[in-house]
Design brief:
The complex is a heterodimer of chains A (about 425) and B (about 140). Chain A has about 425 residues and is of the alpha/beta class. Helix content of chain A is about 35%, strand content about 15%. In chain A, α7 crosses α12 and α7 crosses α13 (about 340-345). The radius of gyration of chain A is 20 Å and the shape is globular. The model of chain A has no long low-confidence stretch (mean pLDDT about 95). Chain B has about 140 residues and is mostly beta strands. Chain B has a five-stranded mixed β-barrel. Chain B is globular, with a radius of gyration of 16 Å. Classes of the chains: A alpha/beta (about 425), B mainly beta (about 140). At the A-B interface, α5, α6 and β5 of A face β4, α2, β5 and β6 of B. β5 of chain A pairs antiparallel with β4 of chain B.
């Protein structure tokens, strides 16, 4: 059994920059934006001087911005030096792991107020260099020499999944359509456009240029057109892949007994679990992510909850197949049923298990080191009725976040509870 | 002292000599590829280097149209894609490698379970030429 936290931990405020492509901004500028929004979100206000520790997720400022040792620099830019500041690197799970370290630091009793952040500035490098940098999250001795790219790894998992369960590959496209519909309602999303809007936009553009107007019956036909939706790594096409993004996100954690000094409506971290695994080829299974199931089991045990208790979840949909596997790894659907749930709309906002109401990594954007904390921002917004047009109906008591590093070498899961 | 025959670099040194190696735990019998100095099953360091027989089946694959720099330099691109897969070896464990000798014009025709055998490919030219593990239909 997973041990309980030694004392309770609450989230009392969140903030994020818009995710997207920002040539004029560095990662520290984006984090300043997230931090300023976080300050506004704390109901009773807070003094940055109260922050006792800063954990920051970032994958590769070294390669993306030619800058290592980023945590104390970012701390200085938000004016909190000399607070202890630590950068955590676990690929795309960096800030989910930073969140866990912040939770454990408070639970230890050593500190009461912790800033957790995530940031990544990816778009300064040319595309091929971005691909090469992301590939560093895999095993550079034994996986990359085979010719794998990140879309390639998830594509291979997709072939294993589709073959094992004789699944309809259209389910992948359904995930993309659903997440773009959610992202269209999120002003912070990189692509706040539905696939239908993208399709109509392409037709309008052709018309304006006096070119032949491409015709598609519907979004599915658009997504299956190899000219409109380029094949990247079979069977994954461009619209199965999350984008290259810049962005930052931040949350403020405090010990449970201090929470009411900050807000009357905290959300509590009631479950936290993390697990690791070897290279993809070495896994027990290729059609799921074993470390995700292990991390979520620990989080559920700590929380004393089951998958049925979770009202909504933000999962790591770096590729469409990843969302389908996640919904099974997290226990929302039995093995081999996730693709059917995606086809039947069960993961839509009005479905039985709303997944990625923010738009997910696919549509909101995936500044890799920021994604884990970015998920918590959506949990906060939904639980406080601040999600605007994408707001879920009914009382939201429990939510889950699922953040994956690499192909699943690192997985970290958190469960949140709102009590009033 | 660790056994140099099991060091991480030994795998690619063996590839350069047309050999596919793994490790065998003398305590529990577990076989690993790439070779390990500590058994991942029983944590024993009583581990020996073994030669794998290089036969297996296709467990997962993809055809890559947008290559990383290293593969682009080897001549691959959207019009000349390549297949990379995960091969389940006869001894049990799996390994990642390029899969050659397949018709890539319609990836639908590539089937999981396809019998494969080890081979090697050279990428790069002149002093940059390097040998890599690959598999081809058996």
């Amino acid at each position: 059994m997973a041990k309980k936290l030694s004392r309770g931990v609450a989230v009392v405020g969140v903030g994020m920059s818009k995710f997207g492509v920002f040539p004029e901004k560095t990662s520290r500028d984006l984090f300043v934006e997230a931090f300023q929004e976080l300050r506004q979100s704390v109901q009773k206000g807070f003094d940055p001087k109260d922050i006792e520790a800063f954990y920051m997720g970032n994958f590769s400022s070294d390669h993306f911005e030619n800058q290592a040792h980023l945590a104390p620099i970012v701390a200085s830019w938000v004016g909190i030096s000399p607070v202890e500041s630590t950068r955590i690197e676990d690929a795309c799970a960096s800030s989910g792991v930073a969140l866990r370290q912040g939770v454990l630091a408070i639970a230890s009793g050593n500190v009461d107020v912790v800033l957790v952040g995530g940031l990544e500035k990816m778009t300064d490098l040319p595309g091929a260099k971005v691909t090469d940098t992301l590939a560093l999250a895999a095993d550079s001795m034994f996986e990359i020499p085979a010719g794998f790219t990140f879309p390639g790894f998830y594509a291979a998992m997709a072939t294993a999944y589709l073959d094992k369960y004789n699944a309809d590959p259209d389910a992948l496209l359904r995930v993309g359509i659903k997440n773009h519909e959610n992202g269209a309602l999120n002003e912070k999303a990189q692509f706040n456009q539905s696939i239908k809007d993208v399709m109509l936009g392409k037709q309008r553009k052709a018309e304006q240029k006096g070119l032949p107007i491409p015709q598609w019956d519907d979004e599915m036909a658009f997504l299956k057109d190899p000219k409109a939706n380029l094949m990247i790594a079979w069977p994954l096409r461009l619209f199965d892949c999350s984008p290259v993004s810049d962005g930052a996100a931040a949350v403020l954690l405090v010990s449970e007994e201090l929470a009411e000094k900050f807000t009357d409506e905290p959300i509590f971290v009631v479950g936290s679990g993390q697990a690791s695994d070897g290279a993809l080829a070495e896994r027990a299974s290729l059609s799921d992510i074993p470390a995700a199931a292990k991390a979520s089991k620990r989080a559920y045990e700590m929380a004393g909850l089951t998958p049925d208790d979770i009202d909504f979840a933000e999962v790591h949909d770096c590729f469409t197949i990843a969302e389908i596997m996640a919904t099974e790894d997290l226990g929302f659907f039995p093995r081999g049923e996730g693709w059917k749930a995606a086809m039947q709309g069960q993961t839509a906002r009005d479905g039985s298990h709303p997944i990625n109401t923010s738009g997910g990594l696919k549509s909101k954007g995936h500044p890799v080191g920021a994604s884990g904390v970015g998920q918590v921002v959506e949990v906060w917004k939904q639980m406080h009725g601040l999600a605007g047009e994408r707001q879920l109906r009914g009382k939201l008591r429990h939510a889950l976040t699922h953040n994956v590093g690499g192909t699943g070498q690192t997985c970290v899961v958190h469960i949140f509870e709102k009590r009033n | 002292m660790t056994n140099q025959a099991l060091h991480a670099k030994a795998f690619n040194q063996a590839i350069a000599e047309d050999q596919l190696i793994g490790s065998h735990c003398l305590v529990c019998g577990n076989i690993s590829i790439p070779q390990r100095q500590i058994c991942s099953n029983c944590h024993s360091d009583q581990v020996e280097r073994i030669q794998m027989d290089g036969k297996g089946t296709l467990a997962a694959f993809t055809v890559i149209y947008v290559p990383p720099t290293s593969m682009a330099e080897a001549g691959y691109n959207a019009k000349n894609p390549y297949c990379v897969g995960i091969v389940a070896l006869g001894e049990g464990p799996r390994i990642s490698a390029q899969i050659i000798g397949l018709d890539l014009s319609d990836p639908e025709t590539i089937k999981i379970g396809l019998p494969l055998k080890q081979t090697f490919v050279v990428r790069g030219e002149g002093e940059f030429a390097k040998k890599f593990l690959a598999f081809e239909p058996a």
